[in-house]
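Consider this one:
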Amino acid sequence: MASVLIISWTHYKILESTIKAKTDEYVSMFVDTILDQINHLDIILTTTKQILTEKHLAIAKSIDYMLKNVPGDLTTEHLRELAEPLDIIELSIADKNGIITNSSVPKYIGFDYKAREITARYMAITDGTIHEISEEPRESVFEDDMPGEINHYVGIAHGEGFIQIGFNAAVITRLQHEINIERNIAQTRIGDNGYGMVLESGVITAHPDEHFLMRNVSGEDWYPSVSSGNGFEWIKIDGEIYYARYKSANDTIVVGLVPEADYYRELRKLRTETSGLLVFVIILMALVVYFILGRLLRPVNHLAKALNEIARGNLDTRIEGSYNNEFDTIKDAVNAMLADIKTYMDDKLSAQRMINDLNTSIMLSQIQPHFLYNSLVVIRQLCREDPKRAEETIVEFAQYLRGNLDSLTLKHPISFEQELGHTQTYLAIEQKRFGCKLKVIYNIQFKDFSLPALTLQPVVENAVRHGVTHKEHGGTVTITVDEADGNAVITVVDDGVGFDPMQTVQSDGRSHIGLENVRSRLAAFCGGKLEIHSKSGVGTSVVITIPKEH
């Protein structure tokens, strides 16, 4: 009889352990998801800030190059025309004494940094020891307001002085709005009545009930338990008992809470069902107790050991053996569940890596260094020969840079007219560089559709760089847009040198990663496709097909 009770109790404890493990699993999954979102937000913001800094340092270096190589001085109007298309709020040039000698904001001319506490920070860049001047917003040093909220500065040494750029990093604010931890906490429930909250330095910063927001709980009895690191704990909040799963990173603590009634609901149901069966089991098992005991102990030990491994997070664990009883069903179900979870996690990780690699390739291909250099050389030459055209080219060059950099933050398709305008800006610069060697023909019959940013421009750039400009006398790029069978069809044809489409890397060492990125983004954003037809010595044709409704 004692053996029967032991067996029944063991069976109950196994099921109880399974239920608790599942509860722990979905509460832990919630906590880990929220914490990952917080960590990813920090990484994204840091990366975005770095990209913005590098972008504006590149602009500062370009201006430094122009000042050193272009005859004459840039006027305040020139600085303003450079600053406005690039979202630069302040573009100033200072001498070795820290006095601004020229600026896109006229009232800053003559400003003396030596009289300010920040002198050391600004003057340090004159010897090349610092690029990043200030990271936080600062109040205006003038009686009237600044021309915009400047929350980031960069600068480089120029001669014995320095060039300073102030800009509004609004993209960081947009990212913070899109990855809204508070909204996720408010909209997500754990089970029927469970919920989560985020604590920072003892203050509730995210909670589904707005009355709890900004409540300081560092002095409450339950706070020391959840602030001790990572783990599980039973705690009492405002008189109600919760099963809490908590995990911390730096000063941030994410807590998942399941009310006691919810946590034990399944256990109570199991206990009630088990009680009715226990009487029958006792009578039946009394006749075959030794036989049943021998059959149960082995699979119970295997299952308990496997469940403990699973609880520790080892998803590679599998329950081995054949028991010819109900444990086989549990074993198969658990093994199948573990295999599905492992496959899902591997697929998700692989997809994320693919997305990261694709995004990295896209960002690296946004602005080609050689194009920046060649464009600046053209501008320098035009400044000597035709200042009017030089001024037009500077504006076009700024518009091109802004279009490429804006594409880093776009997560939705844009109108074809926008993409065409960006492409025309690029071609205008290239035509000033190559002159009559580059001819462009537009045959635009249809414009009413959208497509991913930077779809047409990279294809046209490929035709210019690797097609017609490689021919001794140049050639023609023809852009045709029409509609057919419910699709928008874009065709870019050049009569350049062509290439062998079957070769991944061509004889000149170049690859097709730019066109492959366009193809991948077309498929991901709108179900479009890109086809390449080329023949060495004849030319290349690229056909882009985009569904009008996507």
